[in-house]
């Protein structure tokens, strides 16, 4: 009985950590694919006046808005990627910030 509980707990742990790690990897991969050409891998490239993402203090909802709708030169991504993917990218770009 006790070993069963330990086994189930270990299994849950593995599933949960896997779910979280693919999520952050997904954000990174999407970012590098769609955003890095203007913002750079570390968020500081600034091509076409792209804002420095390490210095950005936008709120979570403002980031989601900006990726969904775009702004001036920055294109809108709403039709190209899913809401889940936008969320994954927003989590990733916050991790680039100098001061979190
Ligand atoms: C074609 C170049 C280009 C691409 C591709 C691009 N951006 Fe931008 N981004 C910009 C520009 C230009 C701005 C500044 C817009 C403004 O305020 O005038 C900007 C601003 C932002 C901001 C606002 C920062 C702030 O503090 O105001 C965020 C967040 C952002 N981009 C995230 C992303 C993400 C995430 C992606 C990929 C899904 C992406 N961008 C793709 C050019 C780009």
TrEMBL record:
Superkingdom of source: Bacteria
Pfam family, any one: Cytochrome_CBB3
Stretches assigned to the Cytochrome c domain: 22-97
Entry-linked InterPro entries: Cyt_c-like_dom, Cyt_c-like_dom_sf, Cyt_C_IC
PROSITE patterns, sorted: CYTC
Molecular function GO labels: electron transfer activity; heme binding; iron ion binding
Annotated signal peptide: none
Alphabetical keyword list: Electron transport, Heme, Iron, Metal-binding, Transport
Keyword Lipid metabolism: no
Name of this protein: Cytochrome c
């Amino acid at each position: 009985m006790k070993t069963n509980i330990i086994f189930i707990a270990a299994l849950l742990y593995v599933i949960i950590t896997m779910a979280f790690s693919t999520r952050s990897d997904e954000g990174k991969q999407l970012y590098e694919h769609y955003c890095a050409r203007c913002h750079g891998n570390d968020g500081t490239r600034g091509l076409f006046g792209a804002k420095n993402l390490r210095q950005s203090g936008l709120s979570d909802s403002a980031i989601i808005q900006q990726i969904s709708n775009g702004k001036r030169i920055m294109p809108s991504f709403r039709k190209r990627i899913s809401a889940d993917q936008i969320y994954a990218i927003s989590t990733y770009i916050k991790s680039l910030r100098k001061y979190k």
